[in-house]
Amino acid sequence: MRKNKNRYSYRQAYLSFIMILVVVVYLVRLFYIQVLSPEYKAAASDIAFFNKTLYPARGMIYDCKGRLVVYNQATANVQIITREMQPFDTLEFCNIFGIEPEYLRERLEKIKDRNLNKGYSPYTLQQLISQVTPEEASAFEELLYKYPGFYVEHYTTRDYNYPSGALLLGYVAEVSQEDIDGDSYYVPRDHIGKTGIERSYERFLRGEKGNSVLLRDAHGRIKGQYLSGEKDEDLQSGHDLELSIDIDLQTYAEQLMQGKRGSVVMIKPKTGEVRAMVSSPSFDPELLNGRKRGENYKRLEQDPHKPLFNRAVMGTYPPGSTFKPVQAAVFLQEGAINGQQSFPCHFGYPPLGNRPRCHGHPSPVSLAPALATSCNAYFCWGLRALLDDRSLYQSAGSAFEVWKDHIVDLGFGYRLGIDLPSESRGYIPNTEVYNKIYGEGRWSSSTIISISIGQGEILATPLQIANFAATVANRGSYYTPHVVRKISDLPTDSLNIRYHQTGIASKHFDEIDAGMRMAVTSGTCRRANLPGYAVCAKTGTSENVHGKDHSLFIAYAPQDDPKIAIAVIVENAGFGATYALPIGRILLEYYLNDGIITEETEQYESAMLATKLL
User: What's this model's pTM, rounded to 2 decimal places?
Assistant: First the structure.
């Protein structure tokens, strides 16, 4: 009997332990849900409070003369909290916003589909319709009492005073998941600068968000501010930007380039400020604004002429004869040639059977007339003197490394660091490249002779070519090219602008300057001879394996006190003097005289505006 009693006591204790354990588990779980769980705490907070994000005004953008280029336009989003929604008049709703009932049904289904909307929660705001007009928002707000769970979020979108500078300015659009993952500032439905200046200066333009904590009643209705606004966070508007761009010059340059593929870059040599940066074809920046942004973007993306591609900083081209002054700087610095030394040209480079070929001009030639007449043979001789003369360097490879380092110091082969995204570095080969192709010690100047005239493997961006023109104007130095010159309420050292010395003696640039001036007075650039200004220039014709040659032109003026440097590239347009030079001349006169004043330039203007190459 005692044995059975002990057995029952054991069972009773066991059952009691199980019951106590279950109660403890429930208590722990209840404590976690009510106190520790962020999910339930957030849900409870969402029921009691409504956190309304306050979006700051994005900074405005002005040109170098204080003209407003980009500003903010009032707009609004219609948002919903699905848990609070009740049946509503869908026809009235659709009439307010000019949408079809089918579109509304699709939007509601997508919002609730967790596979498509991973951030979905019935307790949080979801975007139903974006960028409604102020008139639509106002009409809807008067009827909000009929639409429980609907909210109107007011904010601003970008608008433009000029139909130009689209690729330079960039555009603003809704954040991607990558943007959200990369910066805790952003949450779904926020907007961010996607390209251009809007992207580069996003952290200055965006400002700082604010937050208003509102109190709900038991039915979820907003009753007013919580604690009279003590928990609110103030917003801070974004910084305004002052560009180095002259928007009238930019607009005019784009007009000259209409119907053509190519680029124009104009730089103020003494500061590195970019006065105009054109990539053509382009488009009206307004196209990537508003509800039709996605549709317009797709159309632009499918355009075979690639209007979304910023040729000025992303396009790479063989620089052709505009690279000859670059070569001259290196040859002179290394003592491979001197400015008075002359070389023969027999309609080409004699050691290689007159190849590469050259056009007719007096022979032999020294440096200045070689630049003026764009003699190919002269620069082939110069490369030969540098790479093949063993009194200078032990091998072609070691000489070529010296050459490459000088070219890089002159602003080629690497990004210049302009304050725009997606800048290309171009391409300058090194010794290793040719060792792999031909074998170490098995190549010489004759093997790679095409690089002497800016062909072969050499590639440069229009920005790099314009920057070199500014470098010659400065006699061997340049500032980092930049398109923003001031950020409001911040010191100028907020901008990453550096002074660069190329390592080439200024006296050598004096000789190059003389040759580029001779090109205008009596050489290939005579059509660039502006009354009242000593222009220094160089044309280029760049061979293109994909079709007709590219037309190139570089210049700066005035010679003694350069105020502007320019590079023009017109794709598939033939000789440099045919299209790039006239466009360059027109823009130089427009900039220096604040308009076109000579009859000859007016004729060029009419011809270039009428010319359509596409």
Answer: 0.88
Residue 10 main-chain phi, psi, to 5 deg: -65, -45
In sequence order, the β-bridge partners of residue 479 are 499
In angstroms, the CA 457 to CA 449 distance is 11
- The DSSP bridge pattern shows strands 484-487 and 499-501 to be unpaired
What is the 3 state secondary structure string of 413-475?
CCCCCCCCCCCCCCECCCHHHHHHHHCCCCCCCCCCHHHHHCCCCCEECHHHHHHHHHHHHCC
Q: How far apart are CA 535 and CA 509, in angstroms?
A: 15
3-state per-residue secondary structure call for 103-119: HHHHHHHHHHCCCCCCC
**Per-residue pLDDT, 560:** 96
Confirm if 264 and 583 have CB atoms less than 8 A apart. yes
Q: What is the Cα 51 distance to its own chain's centre?
A: 36
Tell me which amino acid residue 194 is: K
pLDDT tens sequence across 380-436 = 999 999 999 999 999 999 999 999 999 999 999 999 999 999 999 999 999 999 999
**Any idea what DSSP says for residue 176?**
P
What does the DSSP 8-state code read for residue 66? S
**Helix H or strand E encompassing 169:** helix 166-169
Distance, CA of 320 to CA of 308 (rounded, Å): 26
- pLDDT tens, position by position, 49-90: 667 788 899 999 999 999 999 999 988 989 999 999 999 999
